[in-house]
Write a structure and sequence with these properties.
heterodimer, A: about 280 residues, alpha/beta, two-stranded antiparallel ribbon, 7 strands, about 10% strand, B: alpha+beta, five-stranded antiparallel β-sheet, 2 helices
């Protein structure tokens, strides 16, 4: 029913995808097993919650490569697959340790096959935000948390001992983008020109807007706010250069049409965007 | 030619934003590169095309008219340059 989840071992080389791993779901290599099982779990999340069949909506095979390069401090989507580094053991640990990171990377694939957002400008910030939003939502879904229980941190489980010693506990904090405990703090308010900066920086305001909307609506983030964001992402065809005001307007409109009998949902979405300057 | 600087952008980490505390970058002396890698980099710098990718690298070298800066995806970059990258926290 769910798409196949394949894992390849780069064996510390940088050529993708690497060597195929047989039966990765039962591998003795915990990294291989996590990459396989968690990618499958993200696919299940997209199917159970949004009715989406894999990354492309058409049962696309999930491909993950692990042990990429040596002490590689990142994870990425390359247009066809997910790739995870082992971390250097100081700043970062194995990038498969954070299930929200796996949700984040797979969601870049979903975005590629729906809105088709670019990786620069305001669209780039939206692209990164949508990956953070669905990565965090997936983490909450696996833990069966309501929005008020969630910590809204991105990458909390990959922070290494040296970063921890310096007081950093996550890559980003969706609920408090400017927080000092975030390795890459972000602005919490939109301003014209924000799109000229790194998308991982400009994603702060839309991240906070989703967090505020989901928290104000209450319950599970994926039940209402998540369904609005998903429809905004997948329901209108490609829009590679979409701006943040355009995305905000779309979610406001969807909140009204999808939850017409519950005006509090639109009020929460409207207030959330207004709070971040959009 | 002095050296080539490489900076990692994107992925889940990012690391190139104004308030980021984490930076991943490296340097390789031009003289330490193989003839094949130099030719590959010369071609990359000459092309200088924009890259629309989740993970990409910014490469900088001094040219006759000042610094030359391009972006490239990992498969476009010589492995020796990728492996020179280390991560620091400020």
């Amino acid at each position: 029913m769910f798409p196949p989840s394949l894992v390849y071992d780069c064996r510390h080389a940088t050529t993708l995808p690497g060597t195929p791993v047989a039966n990765p779901a039962n591998s003795a290599d915990a990294t291989v097993k996590r990459a396989c099982v968690e990618a499958s779990s993200v696919a299940k999340f997209y199917w159970d919650v949004f009715g989406r069949d894999s990354i492309d909506g058409a049962h696309m095979t999930l491909v993950s490569s692990v042990h990429y390069s040596t002490k590689f401090n990142n994870a990425f989507w390359n247009g066809a697959q997910m790739t995870y580094g082992d971390g250097d053991g100081a700043t970062f640990l194995d990038f498969t340790l954070s299930n929200d990171v796996i949700g984040h990377e797979l969601t870049h694939g979903v975005t590629q096959h729906s809105l088709g957002l670019a990786y620069s400008g305001e669209a780039g910030g939206l692209n990164e935000s949508i990956s953070d939003v669905f990565g965090s939502m997936f983490r909450q879904w696996e833990a069966n948390q309501v929005a008020t229980q969630a910590d809204w941190l991105i990458g909390a489980a990959i922070i290494g001992p040296v970063a921890h010693q310096k007081g950093f506990t996550c890559l980003r904090d969706m609920a408090a983008p400017k927080a000092a405990h975030a390795l890459a703090a972000q602005p919490d308010h939109y301003y014209p020109g924000i799109g000229n900066l790194d998308p991982h920086y400009s994603s702060g305001p839309p991240n906070l807007a989703f967090c505020k909307a989901a928290t104000a609506i209450g319950g599970h983030s994926w039940d209402k706010a998540g369904k609005i964001w998903y429809k905004a992402q997948t329901g209108f065809g490609p829009s590679p250069n979409m701006t943040m005001p355009q995305f905000a307007a779309r979610t406001r409109s969807l909140a009204q049409s999808m939850f017409a009998s519950t005006p509090a949902v639109h009020a929460a979405v409207d207030a959330a965007w207004t709070a971040v300057g959009l | 030619m002095d050296d080539v600087k490489i900076e990692q952008l994107g992925g889940v980490v990012g690391g190139f934003s104004p308030t980021s505390h984490v930076h991943s970058e490296g340097h390789v002396a031009w003289s330490a590169l193989s003839a094949e890698d130099r030719a590959r980099l010369d071609a990359l710098f000459a092309k200088g095309a924009a890259v629309n990718a989740n993970l990409r690298y910014r490469l900088t070298r001094q040219g006759p008219g000042g610094p030359q800066i391009i972006e490239a995806t990992p498969e476009m970059i010589p492995d020796v340059l990728l492996r020179s990258i280390t991560t620091t926290i400020d």
